[in-house]
Fold each of these.
Amino acid sequence: MTLPDAISDIANQSLPKHVAIIMDGNGRWAQQRGKIRVAGHKAGVASVRQVVSTASRMGIKALTLFAFSSENWRRPETEVSALMELFMFVLAREVRKLHDSNIRLRVIGDIHGFSERLQKKISEAESLTAHNDGLTLNIAANYGGRWDIVQATQKLTAKICDGSLKPEQINEALLAEHLSMADIPDVDLLIRTGGDHRVSNFLLWQIAYAELFFTPVLWPDFGEEQFLDAIASFISRERRFGCTGDQIKNWLVSSANNS
């Protein structure tokens, strides 16, 4: 096997199946440019497109993006309102492109906290893409890792109350079946942009054994190249077999460009 073939083999075997991203730094990106914070969120949409496209072309099975946490309701009302409108706009404009690219879209979180109009848009987008079997794109909105565990516990408690489940039957596997994304493998790689080194109540159960990748790059400046850096870092941690991280990164760039 030639060296390029070996690198290709290593990368293909070691690609993460599920990547999650905390998309941080939109507000700071805007403020650094003398703009209102919402401008940063709008600029970040282009980064979402690049990362989703790259993940899809690489054959990654699932990508989960932290769009709006349950704690984000504490932000100024004008910013929250603008974020909701942006969410509506992006859903309406992007869902057809996702569908044409064989991408399944799901929104995880307590969507009942959103307006009926937004809930309807979410339902329509999920229904349109439900049978696609390429990349699964999970958008975490009004989501918190603790909320996820609590809602799973509530479902199990209801089964105990109606007599269909005994407390001693509860184990990790059963609890996991009642979490968001129960049908998707746990996260292999968690990326956080913006420079902070914390997980911010995101997918607390699902990232138990994930590799963590922190970068100071603000989300609107995070594109395909930075995403491939994170993937190359993951692969080099997993299994390089004598290849360097740069060799793997160069193969990933070539592979993504030729897809």
Note: The beta strands are 18-22, 62-69, 104-108, 136-143, 189-192, 211-214.
Amino acid sequence: MSDLFEASGLTQTGPRPLADRMRPTRLGDVVGQDHLLGPDGTLSRMLKTRSLGSLIFWGPPGTGKTTIARLLANETDLAFEQISAIFSGVAELKKVFEAARARRMGGRATLLFVDEIHRFNRAQQDSFLPVMEDGTITLVGATTENPSFELNAALLSRSHVMTFQSLSQDAVDQLLARAEKLEEKALPLDAEARQVLIRMADGDGRSALTLAEDIWRAADEGEIFDAQRLQDIVQRRAPIYDKSADGHYNLISALHKSVRGSDPDAALYWFCRMLDGGEDPMFLARRLIRMAVEDIGLADPNALVQANASRDAYQMLGSPEGELALAQTVIYLATAPKSNGAYVAYKAAMRDAKSSGSLLPPKHILNAPTKLMKEEGYGSGYQYDHDAPDGFSGQDYFPEQMTRRTYYDPPQRGFERELRKRLEYWSKLRSER
């Protein structure tokens, strides 16, 4: 089926939304995806051969995935069939495949566009494989989720992933100019309000045109809205941020890497973006604790103290007051000296622990509470460090069957400069005894 109206036997009547009326009829009219459709774009190069392989369109909403799929079918003379994974099941898929096979027998191939393809379960995704392999369909799947996580490896291996980008502010402005030409009237906004509207669209072309329609409906003849009036009319559009999907992982990655990169301003921006998107502040508190031990560690031992204190402060104060404590920790961590020395040492020691088997500690550091254990040599030769010169005996504490290892190699940064001096001093004493 091509849409839900046809599926239910209804026809579309009445006024069509502006976004639908402005849907491009040529690939050259699509804005914002020049990396795909420009002279050297990936899709442009494919179209030069007049044939397509199966594709996965990955990107945010309102960036042209459905439109481009339809236009690709026109460009390659393929029959266009569209379904949505939200409303379709196995029975629907079988009907679509049968129609495509019949069409193929008549000499015409089918481009099957599957919206929200990640909504299909693994078995449903596998059902596409035979009809893709025998040429019954050319699959174009659209998803807002990361295909690496949401789609079967077998399906991905037979498809080319095309990444769609959010529309730039210039591209959104270009869409609005086209809408004004189509409607034969300017948007009733002053220059500042127009920029606010563009930012509200957040890179979503469909949203931009929907907002424009709302403004035209609300304006009296001759009325011009300023930025405040615009926001009062359309309210504020929620940021595109799904706490359970890619937006969540992308933003926490940006925050973590900004802290690691010692950029407090960028770190604060991503921290606030997550809060503004509705992220649980306690999740952020836990991530800040992780950053303190992974990326700062002993270069500034107080980093972990600060991170834990800000978590406690947030639990005491709640929102929004407690969020300031977390923001303070973001700045502290970003400006602290960085070291992953403890993290690297832990990972290296864990690898040895997993691979070395059940090696026993050397007997001289084992307690001997019984006579038998003493006779077995437990505790024999142990040197009490506090009785040794410099409070350091230099004994070997590794298993007897294992050569000595060096896991912790502190860099010359922050407090770890002092730790390095101590380790070098103890190493010198050990070599002399």
Note: The beta strands are 55-58, 79-84, 110-115, 137-143, 160-163.
